[in-house]
Design a protein that fits this description.
The protein is mainly α. The protein is built from 15 helices and eight strands. The protein has a two-stranded antiparallel ribbon with strand order 1-2. A hairpin with a 2-residue loop joins strand 1 and strand 2. The protein is globular.
Length: 383
């Protein structure tokens, strides 16, 4: 007669598939989890995508340009959110890298010409190549500054990047042969495989397509690529390293994260996002003006990521839409809004009113929704 050991008895015992349900507990239906995965979110994404694709067929030029500004701002906001929201590095010089992208494209793609008393320099490269090189040029500018970004943090990095704004404004206003001085310079339209994104009329389904309609789909594609790439970075190993650096720099270094290298790398990546946004803005404006790329623009980008939500792609997009569309909406409806009127007519100008409103939005978000509009505080969460 064989003797059964305790180990053999344990191996022969049946293994329960799940813990017994508590008395009175309701058993969820078999497909409950699958139905949760089939929630309304995919359908909302599909409906929103179809709506965005259909906008050029129904919206006029004003709203299309407002949407283009919002998409360009969203690309730049994703870049600064990678830097400030995910890594905790404060940057006040984001507008400098937008200017590098915008003017880099204008110089690389433009032809030598005389404009507003300046002999403008232009390399006359193919416009698609000039756009790529302009983004790379912004990344190169970020790479030159990255050793400083890799070693400074907090307010010290903010002050250091603030110097980029003053340097950039001095160069933009005084390097007339490159920038055109105070009046700026014209931007050549983008041409890809013989298709030019200019005001030449193209009829699609009985709807005339000009530069705004053509650029709409280009901006959508650029925003989609930028968002997916940033989402991949944040969800992968680099994103975990960046969050570790933001939460506790010393602990991240102890765990083997090369803190200075990651900080420098994300600064370069953020600069390239800003360069892409600058190229898109130049194509929409069709003219680059130095005054636009000042300190106010950098502050607006910080407001975008605070309002939308730090460290998320969706937060950058939502915040950019809010901050960039608000002045456009107020300008469009200034005649019917109280206290808001055209500049010089006695009321509050739409631009000033928009700054008051999103300034108040920043304060409200910091006080009541610290995670931003896309990350509301959950019930029961501690302050």
């Amino acid at each position: 007669m064989s003797e059964t050991t305790p180990d053999a008895a344990r191996d022969q015992a049946p293994v329960p598939l799940a813990p017994p349900a508590a008395p009175g507990a309701k058993t969820p239906p078999a497909g409950a989890r699958l139905e949760g995965l089939r929630g309304p979110r995919p359908y909302l994404w599909l409906a929103g995508s179809l709506l965005l694709l259909a906008f050029p067929f129904y919206l006029d030029r004003f709203w299309l340009q407002a949407g283009l500004f919002a998409m360009a701002a969203a690309i730049g906001a994703i870049g600064i959110n990678l830097l400030t929201g995910s890594t905790g590095q404060l940057s006040m010089g984001h507008a400098f890298f937008l200017a590098v992208g915008a003017y880099g494209y204008s110089v690389l793609a433009g032809e030598p010409s005389d404009e507003n008393g300046h002999s403008l320099t232009g390399l006359g490269l193919p416009t698609w190549l000039a756009a790529i090189l302009a983004v790379a040029l912004a990344g190169l500018a970020g790479g030159i500054f990255s050793p400083i970004a890799g070693r400074l943090r907090g307010a010290y990095l903010g002050i250091a990047t603030l110097a980029l704004i003053f340097i950039g404004q001095h160069v933009l206003f005084n390097a007339g042969s490159l920038t055109g001085g105070f009046n700026g310079r014209a931007v050549p339209p983008l041409s890809v495989f013989g298709f030019t994104f200019d005001d030449s009329e193209l009829v699609v389904a009985a709807v005339p397509f000009e530069s705004s309609e053509k650029l709409w789909y280009l901006a959508l594609a650029a925003l989609l690529f930028s968002g997916l790439f940033a989402r991949g970075v944040l969800r992968g190993r680099p994103g975990r390293a960046l969050n570790a650096i933001r939460d506790h720099r010393i602990a991240a270094g102890v765990m083997g994260v090369p803190v200075a290298r990651y900080r420098a790398g994300v600064f370069v990546l953020s600069s390239m996002y800003a360069g892409l946004a600058g190229v898109l803005l130049a194509l929409v404006f069709q003219r680059t003006v130095p005054e636009y790329f000042g300190m106010v623009l950098s502050l607006e980008y910080l407001a975008m990521i605070v309002i939308g939500g730090l460290g998320t792609v969706a937060g950058a997009v939502v915040g950019a839409a809010f901050v960039s569309l608000l002045p456009q909406v107020l300008t469009h409806y200034s005649e019917s809004l109280p206290l808001v009127s055209a500049p010089g007519t006695g009321g509050i100008a739409p631009g000033e009113a928009s700054r008051y409103l999103y300034g108040a939005a920043v304060v409200a978000v910091v006080l009541f929704m610290p995670g931003g509009l896309t990350r509301p505080k959950k019930s029961g969460e501690k302050k």
